[in-house]
Design goal:
The chain is α+β, with helices and mostly antiparallel strands. It has two domains: about 1-40; about 45-249, Muramoyl-pentapeptide Carboxypeptidase, domain 2 (2-Layer Sandwich), CATH 3.30.1380. Helices cover about 45% and strands about 15% of the residues. The chain is globular. Mean pLDDT is about 90; it is low at about 30-40. Bound molecules: zinc ion.
């Protein structure tokens, strides 16, 4: 073997290694991208002045007043994961509770699906307790990807519900999105005024993992517009609504 040939072999080995390293870096890139976006969350926080509105925006930059508690919470009349009447998670605001009943009935009538409501209203105090526990377990950075800080949870609006089914053993898991029930929900929830709030392709903007189980009630008109144009609530409130109010002002 001559020297030239050995050099060529060594060089192609080096190129192969560089290629593999590049592929590895690109594969891990999405996770790092999320981290780069995260720090802007929980900065320049605005306290909302319309907590009772159906299109109130609650996220990592828009917060509900700590003392906000909806005045029209009602006990849910749908299959429940935990039937306890004292459990605040079994309550939603009246209009959302009625819409949820209609959504679950349609799933059953049209497809024979049995949906289960797992977690609805959550008070500020409960969120304080939960978030503190998650931070102790996982640290702030990780806890922030799956749990809201107090005042920043949509569940405090009384317009949000986590749902599940027996096909995922009552769990709140990404797999729900792949089940027949989860797919039907993604395509039909808007007919009853609900949106899947944290879609898979907008994680960096919502600041939350894909949550096919977390539904937010916004009313049929808004939900239909969000579904049709593949928006998130941020797009709708901060862009679509602003443009419309500008036209009417
Ligand atoms: Zn939720």
């Amino acid at each position: 073997m001559n020297r030239m040939r050995m050099l060529l072999i060594a060089m192609s080995g080096l190129l192969l290694t560089m290629g593999l390293v590049t592929v590895f870096l690109f594969q891990t890139h999405p996770a790092r991208e999320d981290e780069e976006v995260m720090p802007t969350f929980y900065q320049d926080i605005i306290e909302v002045d319309n907590p009772d509105s159906l299109d109130v925006l609650v996220n990592k930059n828009y917060r509900l007043p700590a003392d906000y508690e909806p005045s029209d919470l009602v006990f849910l009349d749908v299959p429940l994961y935990n039937k306890d009447e004292n459990n605040e998670a079994n309550y939603l605001r009246k209009e959302a509770a009625q819409a949820l009943k209609e959504l679950f009935e349609a799933a059953n009538d049209e497809k024979g699906y049995e949906l289960i409501a797992r977690s609805g209203y959550r008070s500020y105090e409960t969120q304080v307790m939960l978030y503190d526990r998650y931070v102790k377990e996982d640290g702030v950075e990780v806890a922030d990807t799956y749990s809201a800080r107090p005042g920043h949870s949509e569940h405090q609006t009384g317009l949000t519900i986590d749902i599940t089914s027996d096909s995922v053993h009552g769990g709140l898991t990404e797999t729900f999105g792949e089940t027949d029930e989860g797919k039907w929900i993604a395509d039909n929830a808007h007919r009853f005024g609900f949106i899947v709030r944290y879609p898979e392709d907008r994680v960096d903007e919502t600041g939350y993992q894909y949550e096919p189980w977390h539904l937010r009630y916004v009313g049929v008109e808004t939900a239909t517009s969000i579904y049709r144009d593949q928006l998130i609530l941020e797009d709708y409130v901060l862009n679509v609504m602003k443009q419309t109010s500008f036209l009417w002002d």
